[in-house]
Specification:
About 60% of the residues lie in helices and about 5% in strands. It has helices spanning about 5-15, 65-75, 100, 120-125, 130-145, 150-160, 165-170, 170-190, 195-225, 230-245, 265-285, 290-315, and strands spanning about 15, 25-30, 35-40, 45-50, 55-60, 65.
């Protein structure tokens, strides 16, 4: 039901629309992360993805309140209309308006249930999500693995300065290094990421994630028995699929979160990754490919746990 129809129905019943609806926009929060979104009334009842956590959300229909409730709201604000809820400024994606970028409608759903289709749930499971802490920890892992393995470092430097490395891999190496540097820079900077920076950081994160799985898979495939070969094969396939998803633009810049990292998150994550790295490489004597894969997997999965711990401590304080 659109706003005009609701206004007519409200007039017949002696009801008034709440002040937050006077701007023809629907303001609501993501149930998972609390991100505040504001979309046009035409999106009421439709589904989309939260720009912060990528969760599928349903736009609620505009609320209607009685005239008595509206009068109480007006009196509480000293006779002035209640201020509109503000939302985070979201950059518009190519071919979409700002409102469409904030919530890309993907069909209709009943507002009471907010159910998502199987395709939406599968997409949310397959697509990765990278924020500042995750990419920072991945960059630390790359630096540690490269610095502590002279043979790997010599092979990389030999390829970079070879003819094939310069002419065929030079551009990709440059993009990767820029993404690594930006991943370290943005953990200390509160400046918003540009679309170009997001792509460079996404390229770094996806290739680090994918190559770590592929390297570990080939090493395990070479040193494992036949009946256990399914695990390294799965590693190789998952890493290759992730890189192909970036190549075909299935994984895009929306997978890079705008959420700002905090100093406690960065310190806890850094300490954990460094501890895991030295435990795997020095104590357990793992091959660098296995250590690399474990640290990257720990980086990508540790972020949510650290975020919950930090958020819980803030709530207690």
């Amino acid at each position: 039901m659109c706003l005009r129809t609701q206004r007519a129905a409200a007039g017949e019943q002696g009801l008034l629309l709440l002040p937050e609806r006077l701007g023809f926009m629907i303001a609501f929060k993501c149930e998972k992360c609390g991100q505040l979104m504001k979309v046009p009334e035409d999106y009421a009842g439709k589904r989309g993805t939260c720009p912060k956590c990528k969760t599928v959300v349903t736009v609620p229909y505009p609320r209607i309140a009685s005239s008595a409730e509206n009068q109480r709201t007006t009196a509480a604000t000293g006779g002035a209309s209640a201020p509109k809820a503000s939302s985070a400024s979201l950059p518009a994606s190519p071919g979409h308006t700002t409102e469409q970028t904030a919530l890309l409608a993907e069909g209709t759903a009943h507002p009471a249930t907010g159910a998502s289709s199987p395709g939406d749930r599968l997409k949310s499971l397959l697509l990765p999500s990278y924020d500042e802490v995750t990419m920072f920890l991945m960059s630390v892992t790359v630096v540690l693995v490269t610095a502590c393995n002279p043979s790997l470092r010599d092979r990389l430097m030999g390829f970079i300065f070879s003819v094939s490395g310069v002419f065929f891999g030079g551009a990709y190496i440059l993009i990767y290094v820029c993404g690594l540097v930006l991943s370290i820079y943005h953990i200390f900077s509160s400046r918003a990421k540009s679309q170009t920076e997001k792509y460079l950081m996404l390229f770094f994160a996806v290739f680090t994630n994918g190559t770590s799985a592929i390297c570990a898979g080939f090493y395990l495939l070479e040193h494992s028995v036949i009946w256990l070969a399914v695990f390294p094969i799965w590693n190789i396939a998952s890493g290759a699929v992730l890189i192909l998803m970036l190549w075909f633009d299935i994984v895009d810049r929306r997978c890079v979160s705008d959420r700002e990292a905090t100093i406690p998150q960065a310190i806890l994550g850094l300490a954990a990754v460094v501890a895991v790295f030295f435990a795997c490489s020095l104590l357990l004597k793992f091959h660098w490919a296995i250590t690399f894969s474990i640290c990257v997997a720990y980086s990508t999965s540790l972020d949510r746990a650290i975020h919950k711990v930090c958020r819980g401590k803030s709530a207690v304080d």
